[in-house]
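Quick one, T. Sequence first:
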Amino acid sequence: MAHAETEDQKPQAMSEVNVKSQRTQDLPNKGYQATKTRVGKTYQDPQDVPQAVTTLTKELLHDQQVGSLREALRNVVGLSFNAAEGGRAGDNFNLRGFYTFGDIYLDNMRDTAQYNRETFNLEQVDVLRGSAAMLFGRGQAGGVINQVSKMAELRDKNTITGSAGEYDYHQFTGDFNKQLTETAAIRVNVMDRHDETYRKNPTTGDRPEFDRKGIAVSFGAGIGTENEFYLNHIYTQTRDVPDFGIRFIATHPQNNAPNGASDRTFWGASNNFDDSDTRVTTGIFTHKFTEDTQLRTQLRSATYNRAYWAKLPGPGGVSPALPTVNSSVGQNQARYLNYNTVNLQSDFSTKFDLAGMKHAVVTGVEWLKEDSVRRQLVDLDPTAGALYERHAKGNLQNAFNADNYAVYAQDSVEFIPNWTVLAGIRRDELHARYTSATSPKLSYGEYSYRSGLSWQPTPDKHYYATWSDSFSPTADLYQLTAVPQDPERSKTVEVGSKWLFNDGDLAVRTALF
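Structure tokens:
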């Protein structure tokens, strides 16, 4: 039988189809529930970290329209706010009862300068509770606060937000991302915020003010490939009128004094200032040997300049004199600070099977150079009561410079299905020089450890027990005026559990420590 093949039945040549796949970029959060973090040094789900972790996602920060890190951290249980105790200006928190000014990080690198941090360029904020010296170096037993920067992404997206309110409050932010090529992009974030408070100087009409601006640029090349490079720079500026609180009479706040002063009285004036300029430049290079093996290196240069002058509520009886513009009433709190750092970190992580067990190993080295100077400000017109300005730098109060070196290694071993044991060790060396005549030098070397046992019967359930330690050196305030003592050491034992419900929309955590 003869068979005739029509044109439609003949084999057809298909046109070429190109299929492109993009690797999931860092921190693909699900609304308010974070699904990725680097707070444990490796890129993992917070559910898998064998310590209590709270993550504030960008969706939460955006929906609440928070402007500062201080506002954002009001969402964190077990964290309280200080009010410049110990002369510490800027962000000043307690976590689990321990101060944290030496435990604030930006992208896992130390960010301990005295300044007020903003959230306009933050992807998320991770709060890791408990001793964490093996992961981060010197610090307290309460834990660490790690800010995660927004990075360039392979998409086009522009977002502008604005809000306004009483007391001349307004806040504007812009987030602009542009994909340049198949693997390159640039992202720019900007912020402008102004706010006043209900407190008022009755003689001048002045109020405390927050006046802050910022711009952040992130350029990424090779995004989603074996060799990724990001260059990030952020500049923030504050021009605040500071408020150093209310007067106390005996043991209670002053209220309804005969001269009209009350808890609503602002004891400063508009010529008081809290000015800061912060510049942080970071280069990040990641080489991915495989999906499970990578080398990540970060190099950062940061400069923090700050000067402030604030009038403190004056002494007196029931009817103290009210403040004027250059009033001699009350003490003057005036200071100039300059802090510079250079920080290099390199972390190598890999996963492999050995002897029938699954290993997740992370090792790293770190070098941190610190240079800090603190000076008095000069009163330019003492006869008029007081008049300072930020450039009138006076006597040196103290200076500090130091070199910090560290090396660490950690292994997480799944020795039987769903059971994992964790062990890590770190060595820190610090060599510092001070202006103190009695204690001009400080050198120490400390080991830190971390261990734990986890049982995860399902991805939604995690039960763990961990032991870790921390150390805080004598001069963690960057000043040394007494004979050096051994570092303060703390040990933390924590037993906890984590559950996820409704596909992760509801998270429940318990911990005893």
